[in-house]
Fold:
Amino acid sequence: MQEIAPRVFIETGFPGVTLGAIAKPHGLIQIDAPFRPDDIRSWRAELFSMSGGVDRLLVNLDAHYDRTLGSRALECMIVGHDRMAQIFRDRPLTFKAQTVETGAEWELFQGLGSIRWAPPEFTFSDQLFIHWDEKPIILEHHPGPSTGAIWVVLPEEKIIFLGDAVVPNAPPFLASADIEAWKETLALLGKPNYKNFTLVSGRGGIITLDQVKEQVKFLDKAQHQLEKSNHDDVEKSVTQLLKSFNVPAEKQANYALRLRWGMQHYISHYHNQSAEPVDE
Structure:
């Protein structure tokens, strides 16, 4: 676990997503959850050692399986976006690990078993302010990467937890994306009001503005491919887009699946605007 500001921590050592923890006198605010049982136990042990109040709150930055499979096991109140809550209402009550090929991280691991989902108990539409001491924490809806995607903003510490808005060195998840809105969201990070902020990717720890710009470049490429593609062209587009990354051999198949799944569902959704965004 790395302390990136006084009493603000991140953990990048577990598969899946970057985890966050903000220790306040009132209690502990956690950001996302690990999905493997052993990692959940390790993470809970790390958090238990932190001093502070007894209250616990878990923020899910979106509804992706990688960051929500372990939420119930953290045994605390959960907050998320309104549209994230809708996704949970549309899911079966219980997750059962099976052969699904979306390119998510959890698919690379066995032994997850049957898990009951933990939908958010508190939701919001645009912003939610958490006042657990004199330094507020702001949850903000920032559309683009997925349905109900949010940021956690610490204005006093100048830190933003971005979720999947930026996925460095790997393909992002496109199935429920809105690429135009996504690029507008990323453009905010270059504005003066975010100058000198520490940016935390939901899948890569601390990142730079150069990596934000690389994400925008990739989205431009993906959008170009998607606009000229149909389902028959997806495989060729996947091959082209994978060239944007220096992909380790052991990740090639997973990243190709991620792009293939994302592009197929993106094309289906935008050729049929009445369809609901897919739950990745």
